[in-house]
Amino acid sequence: MARSRSRTSSRSDKGAGARQARSKSTRSKPAAEVEVVEEGGGMGIDDGIAIITTIVLLVAVLLVDYELGTNYGEGMFFK
């Protein structure tokens, strides 16, 4: 059976020192600056589309009900 070496005896001081120097150099780098940009106030295009679509649908329902009420006497709001 082969002998196993202990970990402390297989490492040299040179290798451990180089590893520490490398880790110190990454820590000493300044962090990247992050610029915080605030969003402008007001509605976006998505909000505007939702509101306009709702208004158009309500007007369409009212126009159909008006036509049903005036021509056929069966409207819900207009008779």
Descriptive labels:
single chain, 79 residues, mainly alpha, 3 helices
What does this structure look like?
It is a single chain. The chain is an all-alpha fold. 59% of the residues lie in helices and 0% in strands. The protein is built from three helices and no strands. It has helices at residues 7-10, 13-27, 45-72. The radius of gyration is 38 Å and the shape is elongated. The protein starts with 6 loop residues before the first helix and ends in a 7-residue tail after the last helix. The mean pLDDT is 80.
Q: What is the fold's blueprint, element by element?
A:
Layout: H1 7-10, H2 13-27, H3 45-72
Structural class, from secondary structure content? mainly alpha
* Beta strands, count: 0
- Series of H and E elements: HHH
Uncertain stretches of 5 or more adjacent residues = none
Radius of gyration: 38 Å
Task: Determine the mean pLDDT.
Answer: 80
Distance linking N and C termini: 103 Å
Largest sheet: none
Shape: elongated
Helix content: 55-70%
In short:
The protein is mostly helical.
